[in-house]
Description:
Layout: H1 2-5, E1 14-22, E2 25-33, E3 37-38, E4 43-52, E5 55-64, E6 70-77, E7 83-90, E8 93-100, E9 104-105, E10 114-120, E11 130-135, H2 140-143
Amino acid sequence: MPGERGEVGGPxxxxxxxxxxxxxxxxxTVARCGPELTSPEGVEGQTCVMADGHDTWARSYYRxxxxxxLRSVLTLMGPGGRTVETHCTVESQDEPGDCETPHRSSxxxxxxxxxxxxxxxxxxxxxxxxxxxxxxxxAPSEAG
Length: 144
């Protein structure tokens, strides 16, 4: 999860900014993250909309302790019906992982973008159970 990896976001979700980059090459990356969620089956996830300069993308952080390999679909939806979708394989391990859409030129304000990650079981896509859906929007109590 972001808070455990020194990444943007953190325990309890919410939004934030992080200073990233290497010596001589520093960039400001801004993230709007939804809450950290956990499914009864053992999938944890948090999804963020990331923005840096003129680029916007989605990133999901996860941990899969189900014992099975899962599939994830990460979707970034932007203004004007623009959508970017990425498929990731989520190995079963206690270590956190992440999935990211390609970086694309921003259209409009990053606040106009929404990201959603869905984690499903293995097997045929039409038969695989949805285990967790995580979004970049804050929980209703946080938005309040």
